[in-house]
Amino acid sequence: RVESARMRWVVHGERSLYESGWVSLRLVDVELPDGERFEHHVVRLPDAAASCVSEDPERGFLLLWRHRFITDTWGWEVPAGRLDPGEPAAAAAAREALEETGWRPTGELEPLGTWHPTNGLSDHAFHAFRARGADHVGEPTDTNEAERVEWVSAEEVRRHIAGGLVPDGFSLTSLLLALSSR
After folding, report:
1. All residues at 6 or more sequence positions from 162 whose CB lies less than 8 Å from its CB, including other chains
2. Cα separation of 104 and 112, whole Å?
3. pLDDT of 75-134, one tens digit each?
4. Phi, psi at residue 93, to the nearest 5°?
5. What is d(CA 92, CA 90) in angstroms, rounded to the nearest whole number?
6. Is 91 helix (H, G, I), strand (E, B) or coil?
7. Which of 13, 56, 61, 63 gives a 20 to 30 Å CA spacing to 4?
8. Is 80 exposed, middle or buried (0-12, 13-18, 19+ CB in 10 A)?
């Protein structure tokens, strides 16, 4: 990969507009390659997130059916959440799967990919992993995450994606990566 210094935006500084333990909103003083200079809004998130796509040849994919108040939408999602400080991404993915579903991923988690979903606005990083099965250990300990937890066949997952029933970008990308690398 070749990087071109002539197309690189120059950062002259940044200042905070809002700070919390979850998110900060910053104004970044940037200069475009043509010399134009302005302040760009940037959302910074202190913790990356990780997902676990649990896939079983007999049962399909382990998904959550849940409501998201911000967009007022219902949809299928994979278990996911923030990494704790110092926690490896794969460990966070397995922990989130267990907490949100009551199923413990089996075997070593396989990396599916890492990306910045809105890199023109935010520095948030997502890490996706796949487990080739899961063992049921009980009810979810995080009872506010999902209305229901279900194993959904790959064919149904494809139909849900095509029908707009996987509106969460993190889940959508994680599932598409898993489906494309089967």
Report:
1. none
2. 18
3. 999 999 999 999 999 999 999 999 999 999 999 999 999 999 999 999 999 999 999 999
4. -60, -45
5. 5
6. helix
7. 13
8. buried
